[in-house]
Amino acid sequence: MSPVSRAAGWMAGWLLLMVVIAVAGREAMRELAVFQVMLMRSLMGLVMLWPLVHAAGGARALKTRRLPLHLLRNTVHYAAQYAWFAALAMIPLAQVVAIEFTMPLWSALLAAALLGERLDRYKLIAVALGLAGVAVIVRPSAAGLDAGQLIALAAAFGFAVSVVMVKSLTRSDAAVVLSFWMLLIQSAIGLVPALLVWRWPSATVWGWMVVVAFCGTFSHYCFARAMAHADATVVVPMDFLRVPLSALVGWAVYAERLDWFTAAGVALILGGNSLNLKRAAPPRVGAGDRAAPP
């Protein structure tokens, strides 16, 4: 199996889990504040991650020489994640995810500038088609973006910065190491804010939080594995598929409207992904590929 095919397989897991977490997070936030949802997700995720930590060799396998970069990456990611959850409660699900997909533009540019990844015309066309599809789906009004859309846009830029740092980290650290430090650092960051707004969840919300924690933990594990097999400029455009999937879930679960504009946007997104996967060349084998277990 080629590295790009392996990356696509891990990204399929990422896509499924990220669509599910959007629904579970929205349901949990009917009762809980965003800070509490994020803290519970991280603490429960640490418990859920333990089997993978144990399989990797236990605590000694979690050592890293790049703790400052983990700290920076997770501070940025925490802020972006807060903005994403906040936007989720303000605007339709498909819009949150669609606006988030300005992220690949920033990711591709940052990866090319900071990591030396090649940004050829096919990758640029793939990103352009995906962004065009997003624009068709969102269709911002003449008055511009509203508050929820602006918050989603800020989240997208934060996620892009995080993605570039994840790619750098996969060159030396395994996916389970990235996931562990993400959960630990973000638990520490969110402890005080969450305690200030804490309320005991109902039984139903506990169930939703288990789903949020599971999806949040293992989606990032899948993403880190995908990034170890292919360049960020190959992996990130695959994530455009989350837009049509989220639009479909929004229609099925929340009766959010689907129209011909959405269908046209989906077609552009799928076209961009097909071009990206067809033209993607296998990446150079580096430390990141050795760090992630087969």
Q: What does this protein structure show overall?
A:
With 294 residues, the protein is mostly helical. The protein has one domain (3-283). The protein is built from 13 helices and no strands. The chain has helices spanning 3-28, 34-56, 67-88, 93-100, 103-115, 121-138, 147-169, 175-196, 203-229, 232-238, 242-254, 260-279, 287-291. Helix 4 (93-100) runs antiparallel to helix 11 (242-254) and helix 6 packs antiparallel against helix 12 (260-279). It is globular and about 45 Å long. The protein starts with a helix and ends with a helix. The model is unreliable at 281-294 (pLDDT under 50).
Strands, total number: 0
Helix percentage: over 70%
Report the principal-axis shape: globular
Whole-Å distance between the termini?
Answer: 12 Å
Provide the gyration radius in Å. Answer: 18 Å
Count of helix runs: 13
The biggest beta sheet reads:
none
- Beta-strand proportion: under 5%
Structural class of the helices, strands and pairings? mainly alpha
Poorly predicted tracts of residues: 281-294
Count up the domains: 1
Element order: H for helix, E for strand: HHHHHHHHHHHHH
Q: Let me know the average pLDDT.
A: 83
How are the SSEs placed, and which strands pair?
Elements: H1 3-28, H2 34-56, H3 67-88, H4 93-100, H5 103-115, H6 121-138, H7 147-169, H8 175-196, H9 203-229, H10 232-238, H11 242-254, H12 260-279, H13 287-291
Helix pairs in contact: 1-9, 1-11, 2-8, 2-9, 3-7, 3-8, 4-6, 4-7, 4-11, 5-7, 5-10, 6-12, 8-9
